[in-house]
Amino acid sequence: MCLIDCGGPFEKYDSIIHSSKNIRLGVICAAGHEGLLRTFLNQLNERATVGRYDDSDYLVDFPGFGEAFKCGLSIPSSNNDPEWKTIPDVPEGEPIPMYQKAIHLVTEKLKELETSTSIDVAIIYIPKRWAVFEKIVTNDIHFDLHDQIKAICVERGIRSQLIRESKVRNENTCRMRWWLSLALFTKAMRTPWMLESSGEKVAYVGIGYSIDEASKDEHIVLGCSHVFDSTGQWLRFRLSQLQKPIWRENPFTRQKNPFMSRNDAYLLGDRTRQLFYEAQQSLPNRVMICKRIPFLNAEVEGLLSALSGIPHIDLLTIQQDRIWRFCAYDTVKKKVHGFPVKRGTGLILDDLDMLLWLHGNVINLKNNRSYFQGKSRIPTPVRVTRYAGDTPVETIASELLALTKMDWNTFVLYKQMPVTVTTPNSIARIGRLLHRLVADSYDYRLFM
Fold it and tell me: What pLDDT does residue 197 have?
């Protein structure tokens, strides 16, 4: 996907939607790192050529933020700007008090940004020395600095971008500028690209869970239903605590996973109807619901009951199937090909299961060459299992491939799983840290 060749992003400046053509940044920076961070951010407005540390097989030169995204990027120019907040260094000590102090300092500066300025995205800089308390896990606690800061931002309605010092010093200059610029553009409520729609009204739904392992009485399970429309836009979701989770062993991982009761599944299906109707003012013609673990009969019954009246409902599980290792065959040279199986290859196993290579060889990408992301190991397919539905497998395969391109928080060519099964778990993980769950739906960009 090349924004330059396409003439820019799908959604350009619209004065009805956005109050300013420029994207305005707020910054929270640790004392002593101001110059390093400001230089790094200002480079987003400069050109960068693809270097030897970048993925030159598919990456193109970065033309500068304005040329790539057709809007400006406003960066605070000095420490005196109201959009720039500097926090003092966290005193040395035990990890937990240091963690709590860092959270307090960041929260105070977020409050100041919120009350004194009008910004689109808040940049929060994480110095290397904070690594000692970024993750603290014991039998009783599970602290994650990234997730906690994200949860604080979500509660205040602030779209945020955490940047670690290691990223600022990274040598992948061109890739880094593309990645961060795309993330900032998207978090500013702009749309870089969308799926090619057939015109059919489809709702793509992902289900994920977060489990509070530190709960002494019982696991607290938070469910997330993440809904996309047929263009991959309108990224809305709702969080809710499962009322009566059913614990079963996953036959693939041998770990206990939470499943929905019939009533929980019904509520999730009903929320999907509401979310789609609120956005489109009509119900979808088809719903495709994906998750990583199998569907219980109770879940199938609850979802189908809640979605009754919708003509086509596909319930699918998508799991990495690491047992299968295939090599491509060169039919011209009559030997094993030098590249793996082509991305998008499918193998039907029976009426309910197929293997699909979401990760593999991409042909004719740049300079008419083959490209294999990662460039090591033999790619494994995903096993797609159908629990309900009648949509042709060709359609399902095509949609799953397209959904691997819809994670706007990365600049890899594609993710190895569709966004409908990668984002719900991470969203639910952050959602578990919120002090309260609101009845309204959230925009995905708050959690990115």
Answer: 67
CA distance 205 to 303: 12
Structure tokens at 351: 């009426």
The Cα–Cα gap between 366 and 36 comes to 34
pLDDT tens digits, 261-281 = 999 999 999 988 888 888 788
Q: What are phi and psi of 295, to 5 degrees?
A: -90, 130
* CA-based nearest residue to 134, from 90, 169, 168: 90
Sign of CA dihedral 211, 296, 424, 358: positive
The number of C-alpha atoms within 13 Å of 420 and in the hemisphere containing its C-beta is: 28
SS (H, E, C) 265-326: HHHHHHHHHHHHHHHHCCCCCEEEEEECCCCCHHHHHHHHHHCCCCCEEEEEEEEECCCCCC
The whole-number average pLDDT for the span 242-258 is 79
Per DSSP, 62 falls in state B
Q: Which residue has the tokens 């004719």?
A: 364
pTM attached to this predicted model: 0.88
Contacts 24+ apart (CB under 8 A), 270-276: 270/306, 271/225, 271/238, 271/240, 272/203, 272/205, 272/225, 272/227, 272/306, 272/307, 273/306, 273/307, 273/310, 275/225, 275/227, 275/236, 275/237, 275/238, 275/441, 276/203, 276/227, 276/229
Q: Among 135, 110, 140, which residue's Cα sits nearest to residue 123?
A: 110
The angle formed by the CA atoms of residues 296, 231 and 344, to the nearest 5 degrees, is 70
Q: What is the DSSP letter of 445?
A: G
- Report d(CA 214, CA 240) in Å as an integer: 19
Please give, one letter per residue, the 3-state secondary structure of 110-133. HHHHHHHCCCCEEEEEECHHHHHH
Which amino acid would we find at residue 341?
V
Measure the N-to-C terminal CA separation of the chain; round to a whole number of Å.
20
pLDDT at 217: 45
Mean pLDDT of 62-85: 92
**Cβ-proximal residues to 35 (8 Å cutoff; 6+ apart), any chain:** none
Q: Is 280 exposed, middle or buried (0-12, 13-18, 19+ CB in 10 A)?
A: middle
**Angle between the 145-155 and 95-116 helix axes, to the nearest 10 degrees?**
30
| Contacts of 366 by beta carbon, 8 Å cutoff, 6+ apart | 57, 58
DSSP code at position 244: S
The Cα–Cα gap between 404 and 407 comes to 7
The amino acid at 394: E
